[in-house]
Amino acid sequence: MQKALPILYSNYGRYISRFRSIPFYIDCLKPVERRLLLTLYQNAKNGFVTSAKIVGTCIANYHPHGDISTYGALVSLVHNNLAIGQGNWGSPGLNDAPPAAYRYTEIKFKPELEFIMDLLDYVPWEELELEKEPLYLPSPIPVGLIGSDLITGLAFHTTSIPRYKKEDLILRLKWLLENNEKKEKEFGPIIIPNSSNCLVEEESNKSFYNILKNGNGNIIYIPKGELLEKEKEIKILGRAPNSSFNKLINHIDSGKINATILDFSKSDIDILIKPKKKSSIDLQEFAENLWKKYLNKKIKISIHVCDHAGNVFLVGIDELLLNAYQGWSYALTQKLIAEFHKLNERKIENIILSKLRSLIETNKIRKIEDIIQNFKSKKLDLVEIERYDEENKCFVKQNTQISKELIQKIYKNKSISQLIEIENVLDIDEEIKSVKNNICHIEEFCYKKLLSLFK
pTM for the full model? Predict the structure, then answer.
């Protein structure tokens, strides 16, 4: 038992890291988030559906865990603008208003993420827990890093990852791609973690840079606020991630803070503090003490992510950006290769059409048996085309035998008049040439595609 327990505990820890708590090193999504986005794409692409349907379908197909935690992840996707919600999805305040039950809310896939799903067929899929699912969502920037506040998770490791504005992530990625030789010596554009209602500051110089390069550092969240000098009142307009107003409420209720507190929050935090002794109070000093003791929060950033085997490691935001871009480039390359091979299949069909037309026009042959015999006797059933050798990263020419079944299929699908009237059946070489050129210059093609996606 003493030997078995450490092994079992270690396996359990890797499972929790991989399938529950720690984001993946390519798209920075936890499995439940990726599975929910996939379920949304499959079931809510064309309109709103009830959240209950998305939660139930996700659990049934991909995610063998509880409905409460799954719905909580769905709420987070809506709040981070990665899905479109309709109904009561909860609102922050002195005491947060929870979202309505999932049978009352509706949700829809976000059309702006369509470009990610277009490449889903070109990333690896595996049966991780239930049905087959993609190992990651192919996007040039990690989907999980988009939004505000923090990604948190606890397994054998604690992860605390800041989210960023999409535009800032693109800015940083472009600099990394354009300055490969300089990125170890120069800072480049320092992007700041995003928060919807807080200012974010470094605890010490270079914290933001260390988060980008090394994956750790301390940052301070300062909730937004406003001093109403005339009324001698203070507005609190934000709250630090993973914090509450409980301590502030308790100290006001117990009389430690000589003030009253009112909550006017609706979709955003809007809390009013009214000191009781307005005439004698220094409002600026009162506010500074309020923020220092109850509102500001220092957070230690530790960007732990896991790989396919469940191994957890520390990375910087820069590495996450490059991992995502590499995964997206791989999927884009696979799509081009598939398109190249598909075009060559069309070219073979067009060659057959051209030869069929020649036989029909010149030799007045009509019977399929005679046509097939002519193909063989005149050696028309051999076609030279190119294939892409992925192992050696090159194009190779090869002779392809045209099968009798393919000739029969094309002949059957076209009438005699159509075969005679078809024009320009060989005008596909330019398309093949274009796709081949993109594959040969894949780095340049991917970068141009990145720029076109985020103009």
Answer: 0.89
- 98-143: per-residue pLDDT in tens? 999 999 999 999 999 999 999 999 999 999 898 999 999 999 999 9
CA distance 155 to 17: 6
Tokens of 326: 């590499």
- Closest by CA to 315, choosing from 16, 112, 23, is 23
Of 244, 200, 248, 212, nearest to 320 by C-alpha is 212
Q: What is the DSSP letter of 187?
A: -
For 164, list phi and psi in degrees, rounded to 5. -135, 165
Collapsing DSSP to helix, strand or coil, 267 comes out as coil
Give burial (CB, 10 Å; 0-12/13-18/19+) of 366: exposed
pLDDT in tens, 303-337: 999 999 888 999 999 999 999 999 999 999 999 99
Contacts of 247 (CB under 8 A, 6+ apart): 294
The sign of the torsion formed by the CA atoms of 68, 73, 77, 83 equals negative
- Give the CA radius of gyration of the chain: 30
d(CA 38, CA 60): 13
Which one-letter amino acid corresponds to residue 124? Answer: P
CA distances from 52 to 34, 105, 364 (A): 17, 8, 64
Structural contact between residues 122 and 138, judged by C-beta atoms closer than 8 angstroms = yes
Q: What span, in angstroms and rounded, lies between the C-alpha atoms of 197 and 267?
A: 12
Exposure string over 388-421, b if 16+ CB within 10 A, otherwise e: beeeeeeeeeeeeebeeeebeebbeebeeeebee
Q: Which of 28, 62, 20 is nearest to 43 (CA)?
A: 62
CA distance 227 to 240: 19
pLDDT greater than 70 at residue 73: yes
Residue 82's identity, in one-letter code, is L
> What is the b/e burial string over 301-332, where b = at least 16 CB atoms within 10 angstroms of the residue's CB?
bebbbbeeebebeebbbbbbbbbbbebbbbbb
Amino acid (one-letter) located at 283 = L
Rounded Cα gap, residues 137 and 119, in angstroms? 8
> What string of DSSP letters covers 343-365?
HHHHHHHHHHHHHHHHHHHHH--
Nearest of 423, 453, 224, 186 to residue 324 by alpha carbon:
453
Task: Give the whole-angstrom CA distance, residue 10 versus residue 72.
Answer: 27
- Give the DSSP letter string of 7-24: HHHHHHHHHHIIIIIS-B
Q: Look up residue 400 and give its two tokens.
A: 């392809």
Q: Which residue, 148, 184, 441, 442, is CA-closest to 319? A: 184
